[in-house]
Amino acid sequence: MSCSTSGSATNSMLRCRPGVAVALTGARVSLPGLPDDKSAALALGGVVSGLSAARVWCWSLKHEPTEIEVTVARNRSRKARPGVVVRRRDLPSDAIGPGAITSRARTVVDCARILPLDEALCVADSALRDGLATGLTRDDLVAAAESLPRTGRRRALEVVALADPRAANAFESVTRAIVLPIAGLSVTPQGDLGFSEAGAEQYGDLVDARLELLIECESWAYHAGDEPFRRDIRRYTDLVARGWTVLRFVWEDVMQRPDYVRRQVERVVDRLSAAA
């Protein structure tokens, strides 16, 4: 089970050819069609972990991992393999899910302890959003974070506290991570914008109700075509007429120009705060 989880793609590594078993270690072989990350884990006697595990769980990521991440026991001696990152940790049994992969909760906290905030928040938001179907809760994540060794525990708990299942995708999670440090700003994912002139209830990607500021993450997929274009123009005109300030950012700016996004939001927050 491997999913495309972001706007970019990467070449798969250690790919199995259909119908051909690939020899691993000892008597182990990979079954035809076994995902590459699981083949790497079996070859090393470990489990798929980190961003590789998040990809297997089909969560929305900032970008596809460029290497396969595998966790093995500390006392296990295995040579490094090209394209594979090996982490040596002794995992408790409840941290390992079915199919040679870290559990959902363990995957979140492993990512949270080492990744930059924007990448870690994508994983945590997506896991909680997925939890509506899988049953994973914030309490599960807190318990997993608290079970970590001292190194990384605090960071994992911070990310778990910030995680929000209302974020719709990695685009929104990364945008929220960019604006979180801005003083005077407090945004809610999929926040309430009240009712439109036509009486329809409205929500926005990131909403600060106190400042009446809406930050939108704009993708072509949701705005292409004549009718979506007209609908969006009318929506934003209605919001501005009601006193809202609207900022709209595209994928490339959020993912590649975070400083630009932060500066623009800071300018508006300063202006709105001074006028309040």
Automatic annotation (TrEMBL):
InterPro entries per the UniProt record, alphabetical: DUF559, Restrct_endonuc-II-like
Pfam families recorded: DUF559
Signal peptide: none
Domain DUF559: residue ranges: 205-268
Highest taxon, organism lineage: Bacteria
Gene3D superfamilies to which the protein is assigned, alphabetical: VSR Endonuclease (3.40.960.10)
Protein name (database record): DUF559 domain-containing protein
Organism for this UniProt entry: Nocardioides turkmenicus
Top-level taxonomy: Bacteria, Bacillati, Actinomycetota, Actinomycetes, Propionibacteriales
